[in-house]
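A.,

Following up on our hallway conversation. Structure tokens first:
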């Protein structure tokens, strides 16, 4: 099954003094999703932003918001994040005791359910959950910090999951998050990823031009 390739810039790397301007520039450059990293300082060491920011961004953004919850017990906040504007709500496998139940709850709200796995999680641990999700996010860096270099061993996870998805014919997007740059995106695409999350590589410098370069490479490879 051919999966549509999409660029999902992470606003965690944006300049919040000029957030609307930068979001508009990313969209003008071809971004079809925005990635929204929520961090609680517990599941990951860093703290980012939450529901008030999501609600504000939703008002000025016409493309889907891909909300990535890097928080403990994400089931506590499913309803709130959906109501604030999440179009895709992604929860971490490692942060839940009953992932199947949480994913089912997300879908009952009529939004897409995403499942993220950290570098230490083997793909075999989540294979049985693939029929319940719309997107799987393979973290290719340690979650919680931007600007890291991707972990090469994680590429094999992408390749394995892509093979399972294709073999079963699941309508599941495969997203990679961490260390993606203009000069290495081919590694992720060739492994089978079709949704690319990147932060500083889009939001540093000319945002529109950076997004255009990513889109061009995604079409060529």
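Then the amino acids I'd put at each of the 221 positions:
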């Amino acid at each position: 099954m051919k999966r549509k390739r999409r660029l999902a810039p992470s606003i965690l790397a944006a300049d919040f003094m000029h957030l609307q301007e930068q979001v508009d520039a990313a969209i003008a450059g071809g971004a079809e999703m925005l990635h929204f990293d929520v961090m609680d300082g517990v599941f990951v060491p860093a703290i980012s932003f939450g529901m008030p920011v999501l609600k504000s961004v939703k008002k000025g953004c016409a493309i889907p918001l891909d909300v990535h919850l890097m928080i403990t017990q994400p089931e506590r906040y499913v309803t709130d994040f959906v109501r604030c504007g999440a179009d895709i709500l992604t929860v971490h496998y490692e942060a839940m005791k009953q992932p199947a139940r949480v994913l089912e709850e997300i879908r009952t709200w009529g939004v897409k359910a995403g499942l993220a796995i950290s570098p230490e999680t083997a793909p075999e641990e989540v294979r049985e959950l693939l029929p319940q999700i719309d997107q799987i996010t393979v973290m290719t860096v340690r979650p919680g910090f931007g600007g890291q270099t991707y972990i090469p061993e994680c590429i094999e996870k992408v390749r394995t999951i892509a093979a399972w998805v294709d073999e079963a014919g699941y309508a599941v997007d495969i997203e990679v998050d961490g260390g993606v740059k203009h000069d290495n995106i081919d590694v992720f695409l060739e492994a089978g990823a079709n949704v690319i999350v990147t932060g500083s590589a889009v939001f540093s410098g000319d945002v529109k031009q950076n997004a255009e370069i990513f889109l061009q490479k995604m079409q060529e490879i």
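Residues 107 and 212 are 32 Å apart (CA to CA). Curious whether your intuition agrees with the design.

B.
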